[in-house]
Design a protein that fits this description.
homodimer, 211 residues, 10 helices, 6 strands, DNA-binding
Amino acid sequence: MIDVVLADDHPVVRAGLRAVVDGQPDMRVVHETGTAEDLLAWLGGGGRADVVLLDLRFGDAGPGRSRLGGAEATGTVVHRHATPVLVVTTYGTDADILAAVEAGATGYLLKDAPTEELARAIRSAAAGEVILGADVQRRLLGRMRSPGENLSARELEVLRLVAAGRSNDAIARELFVSVATVKSHLAHINTKLGTQSRTEAAAVARERGML
Amino acid sequence: MIDVVLADDHPVVRAGLRAVVDGQPDMRVVHETGTAEDLLAWLGGGGRADVVLLDLRFGDAGPGRSRLGGAEATGTVVHRHATPVLVVTTYGTDADILAAVEAGATGYLLKDAPTEELARAIRSAAAGEVILGADVQRRLLGRMRSPGENLSARELEVLRLVAAGRSNDAIARELFVSVATVKSHLAHINTKLGTQSRTEAAAVARERGML
DNA sequence: CGGCCTTTCCACCTTTCGGACGATGCGGCG
DNA sequence: CGCCGCATCGTCCGAAAGGTGGAAAGGCCG
């Protein structure tokens, strides 16, 4: 019997996952939670499971912004509690997937996956195998081919502000550097992304999920 | 007994909605579908329901792009089949909400709404009442207050290209007008949105879901 | 240690944008 | 009919952004 923990901030989705899991003869839901903190608290308090299903987007919409992201939670669960994490999320942007995989997620599925695929993935995850959905694999490959992610931390920071619509001057003031530096970073960004302008860089960044 | 039809392309979410509905003593699921075409075919083929729960985002992720959007489906169901539609979707951008409300949706809920709220909304919708989730109401108000959507069709077209990273020159060539015209539109856009630059306008446009 | 990358900055120059005018023609509306 | 909003073009000018070509300081790694 596979013990499954559900961690998703959408009650409806949680109910759906529960329905799928309960519909399988060889698995059951042992805990259900809507926040990452809850999940870690339960695991820290003696709870144990064979696999954790979690949504990468925790507290994304509400005004009480990100307290604990899904990626961090994944890392903690995998490393501290030695429990495989199967990430089940709605929108699989490249950045999300990469973050999850880097955090040590055992699998990554989109919510529009059929229920049989989900059940199969849970069994694989419980067995310790790494499984990525077909969609996800395609996206990962596409990402690898594209010349992405060479950006340094600073450059990414600049890019984020550019995408937010700030001017070079505003960015310079915000980062406590000179305008020349911002322009320099931006020049590198444009080179690395193969773009011609700040706006195009912002568009490409969004497309690739680097926001 | 309230007869409910589920229309959502995510099997997991569908299972969740079914679990919620089946958990209520006064309602039941009479049909379940993953595409808008299916939904319309079922209704057209003699099926009837007291309320339709549907996801605005149909066929959004896959490569086989949008065939029939949730908004169009909503309009058809409401007007042709005189059946109330309760939109239940993940991300409630202003544009989505507006589209749904304009299409005649009876209600609009985010998927992170608690199950009781969902059940209440279904009852209200079946009774013909218009109900918007608390989150949604807040967003709509915020939208109304903000000086948005005064943009003309042409301006919006320009804005879209700007957000895609095109230069004025490229936009001019793409729209078969002169650069002066593009600049003129952009000037109006910046005035209407209260922005200072193309990049900022693009950022604001994304934030407000005008993409 | 000597490259290599990152981050910071500079100067000079060209291109692009944005603001501030104005002008035309078109279509709707009272 | 005049007025207004929209779309289309124009000019002039200053500001912002981007390209080129540097340079210096610090970190990392073989």
